[in-house]
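To whoever is on call:

I kicked off a structure prediction for a single chain this morning and the downstream step that reads the tokens threw a length-mismatch warning. I double-checked the sequence; it's 122 residues and nothing unusual in it as far as I can see. Pasting both halves so you can look.
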Amino acid sequence: MDGWLVAAALLSALLHASWNAAVKADADPPRAMAAQMYASGLIALAALALVGLPQWRSLPWMAVSVSFSLGSVALLLRAYRHAGFGVAYPVARGASVMLVVPLAAALAAEWPRPTALAGVAL
């Protein structure tokens, strides 16, 4: 894998953990999460001007993705009420990976290589 891909993945992980830590640290985590979601929605709308609308065939997949994301956010906010960030965030991130692997295999016939499965297990 190219070094810039690794750097991009690490930067993505750092940003993701940072804005989730900011949500957990806020006095009103649901409000903070909503503000971040609205901001990302505005950025996405601006990006549509550059890339255009997605093909209509992708809309059902996008709807499923949004549903899973909203469910994940709701569960993460609930976890933040009951546990510290150092517990809730890593468990939520790890659980999502454990769900993506079987869903990718079942829905997209995307079977991970043994080394990828080892990475998920770790």
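Update from on-call: the warning came from a stale cache, not from the record. Cleared it. Sanity check on the structure: The two ends are 19 Å apart (CA to CA).
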